[in-house]
Amino acid sequence: MTKLASRPSIETKKTGQINFRFYIARFFKTNREALEAWLSWRITLLILPVFAAVFMPRPPFYTTINFNNPAAPWLERFIWCWSQWDSNWYISIAGQGYVNDQTVAFYPLYPLLLRWLGFILSLGQPTTESYIIAGVIIAAITTLIVCIILVKLLMLDYNEEMAKNTLIFLLAFPTAFYLLAVYTESLFMALSVGAFFAARQNHWVVAMALVALAVITRQQGIVVGIALVFEYGQQTGWNWRKINLRTLVSFSFPVISLSGWLTWNWLTFGNFFAPVTATQNYWGRSLAWPWKSVLAQVGGLLYRDPGKSDWNPLTQYWDAMPVFDFTVTLVFIVLAIFSFRFLQNGQLRISYFIYSLGCLLLPLSSPASDDPLHSLPRYLLLSFPTFITITLLSNRSRLFKQGWLAISIGLSGMLIARFSLGYWIA
Fold first, then answer.
1. What's the predicted TM-score (pTM) here?
2. Cβ atoms 215, 192 nearer than 8 A
3. Structurally, how many domains does the chain consist of?
4. Domain of 224?
């Protein structure tokens, strides 16, 4: 049988140049599930704020839109609404730097990215608007990266259906919209999920470089580093003879990165632990045992001032959020128990369990004085292994899956609408 002549490679043109269309087509084909999930979710979250003001009352502090400018209402609903509350801190730092010891509660990588991209978008004359647009762009890109890498990471241990469902549970979570806001959540998740994926591929230098960036994005970056120590131990069978010197040196990257940030605080404000002090002095957070935070929240929910005996969660929205905080925290505590069972059954890696446990215990150990579980529903969004646990549970019960998604999507719609109008969520 005559052997057919080999055809020219479709990856290169006759001139030897790279055929970018081939790589683009392969990218879309390989990441189809993640791209479809991200795009449909992004379009949905783009539409919901447009109708938010129609169905929900505006808060008393809501800024009136200038309807004399035809573009103003649309910019407000599509772009400006994604910059709320803590976003103002990041934008302020991007524009003015760390002007006092209060601002250092917000870690530097995200404001730096806002500053650089805002500078480019504004052609060297950055404004608040350019920083907001930069934040929305960063959020969209990093969330897409999260979707793609998370699916690839999960495919190393589970089937395609499992990976797809985990991504759906993550995007349907009530506070998942923060991934598209001018907040650090999307950037941090991209770095943390990327670090886990690189570690699973045995690219430890890349993994620890990403952790080094994560520790100057959010304090949970330390938890990523600890979890990857366990991952490396599992890969080497906890045999010190298998430790690679190059890999061992790479574990110093996060230490150097965090030390550099803390040293800068010492040189600037005279306090090596200024970020921790800032959260204590200005946000009322303090160290406590995790269970004390939960018990303090329960006590706060059971106690009512005499004048609040007719409390209505629909009209007194600020009083309703502690209920939401407590409920989500309680659910994640239960899920942590199931995660431990899946760990014992070999269905969950130890590094995933350590990371999810750290994401839960870290905020529980630093409660706020007025609301001990303040912002926990947003912090717990970062715990991607918990959504693996949710998926494993949903495989056992179709009713559980349908009920979880129904509640999550319903809450998501309400919270997105309120966030876009300027209400505090988490």
1. 0.90
2. no
3. 1
4. 30-287+398-421
